[in-house]
Amino acid sequence: MNDIQILKLKSQGYCCSQIMVLMVLDLLDKANEDLVDFAGGLCMGSGMETGPCGILTAGMSILSLYAKKDKDRLGPMQESFLTFFQAAAPKGIDCKAIVEETFPAPNPVVCGHLLSRAHSQIVTLLLENGFDPADNSLGNSPGNSPGNSNA
After folding, report:
1. Is residue 70 in some structural domain?
2. Which domain holds residue 56?
C-alpha cells in the first residue's frame, strides 16, 4: 500500500490504527470490516490524552495476529517494534507527544510518515522471524497450529 492509498483511506474516515489493519488485510488479500471497526478503538491513544499511539498498539496487535500463541517469537518482535517506535517518535509514544500542536487531531504528515515506517518495520520483523506477511493463514506455521499453542 502506498502513500496515496493511505491518504485515500484517511480521507474516507479511517484512523491510524484502522489503516494499519487495512494494510495487513491488503497484504493478505482479505477483508474484515469487523476487525477494522474493532481497531478504531485504538485510535488517538484509545481516546485518552496520554494513551499510546494507535499505530503502536495496532502494530503490537498485528504481530500478535501472526504469532498467535508463539510467545517465543512474539515477545522479541514486540520488544523490537517498541524500540523502533520509540526511536521513530522520540518525544513520546502517546498521541499528544507525537502530534503536539494538532492534538487532539492527528497530524497527517507526521502520522502518515510514522504509519508508513511502522508498517515497513512490521513486515521486516515478520520476515525476520519466519512469518510470511502475505500468508492467508494469518500466522499458522508448523508448530503454531491451533492444536499446538506453544503457551
Report:
1. yes
2. 15-128
